Amino acid sequence: MSRYKKQQNPYYQGDLIFIFGVFLIISIAAIYAAGQFGQYGSNAWMKQIVFYVIGAGVIGLLLYFDLEQLEKLSLYVLIAGVLSLLLLRVAPESIAPIKNGAKSWFQIGSFTLQPSEFTKIGIMMMVASIISKAGPKDQRSLREDINLLLKIAAWTVIPIGLIVLQDAGTGAICLFIVMVMVFMSGVNWKLITLIGGSAALVVALFLVLVIEFPHVANAIGIQNYQIDRVTSWMSDSNTSTQADSDKSWQVDQAVMAIGSGGITGNGVHNLKVYVPEGQTDFIFAILGESFGFLGCAIVVVMFFFLIYRLVVLIDRLHAFNRFGAFFCVGFTALIVIHTFQNIGMNIGIMPVTGIPLLFVSYGGSSVLSTLISFGIVYNASVQLTKYKSYLFNS
User: Fold this and answer.
1) Which of 161, 179, 262, 285 could form a disulfide with 257 if both were Cys (CB 3.0 to 4.6 A apart)?
2) CB-side exposure of 241: number of CA atoms within 13 Å?
3) How crowded is residue 168: how many other Cβ atoms within 10 Å of its Cβ?
4) Any residues with CB less than 8 A from the CB of 77 and at least 6 apart, and which?
5) Residues paired with residue 99 on neighbouring β-strands, in sequence order
6) C-alpha–C-alpha distance, residues 72 and 74, integer Å
7) What distance in Å separates the CA atoms of residue 187 and residue 173, rounded to the nearest whole number?
8) What rounded mean pLDDT belongs to the chain?
9) Start-end of H helices in the chain
């Protein structure tokens, strides 16, 4: 009997702990390898450990809340995110420096904070709360679905708009997350078609605006470096100019690095290809050169394992707590889009957008926001285990 109870300890979610540990090891190894280029200092890997330790502490604190309490905090988390984004826009350059034409960070000495990373958590929590209160899809009318969409739009248009003004890539990811959550909520297919068609039209108009009318794009706040990334990605290799070739240099270096790693890699002390932003945006290229195809395959498998675990959790949570289920939907969408985009730009099939590889890339704000979201998922899994144990014992 004692052995059975030990195995049923709800706070021990073995597969999630395994995922956490493996990603920590992968991240430290990759950042340590990239450290030889001196882009973020040779001790960046030690700072990453600190970020993970802080994240683990936050996960522990989150376990003191149940899902109902977390849902009640959704509004406050989102409002805090919006206020931080507004503060960033009016903050002086001494604490909010302009980089690449945009103010995206608070920086006080060596301490940096990117508000958009934490605002994503508030968006996912708030949308999950709105959907959970709307009731099951088979009990909603078309009018109720329209009201649901209007509520979601009312609470997300301002934070996503503020994020887009700072970083179009992060804003697009937030929009993708919301769309996935709306789709999974079971909204009427006619509305889904309308939303999907509208989104496709907006993307098409954006590309036309950026490529054909760059001056107009500048006028509405799109920066030259963002235009360069899109035009570089869209350019055909046979017709690209020298300027386009220069813009694609980062991707060329990343592809060369991955190719030079072969099957088993060159090791963490013997990197031969210089990769810019190797500890952040192009860390997958560092993994490819250091550990080869096998190392990259392990990373991809780990992300598939995480996504599979999330999908299973969503299915089991839905009948127990809809807020928890839909937050997991949002987190799954976040993992999918970040992984696809980051690995895609490392191998040259996606534009360079500065999107990190979650759990792996170096960065305090990105790591902490990811682990906070992971902590809510972990909490949901714990609560579900407790619920199942209660049903079994009763």
Assistant:
1) 285
2) 5
3) 21
4) 121, 122, 125, 126
5) 102
6) 6
7) 21
8) 86
9) 2-7, 14-34, 44-62, 67-72, 74-90, 115-134, 142-166, 168-184, 189-212, 214-219, 224-234, 242-247, 249-260, 283-317, 322-346, 364-393
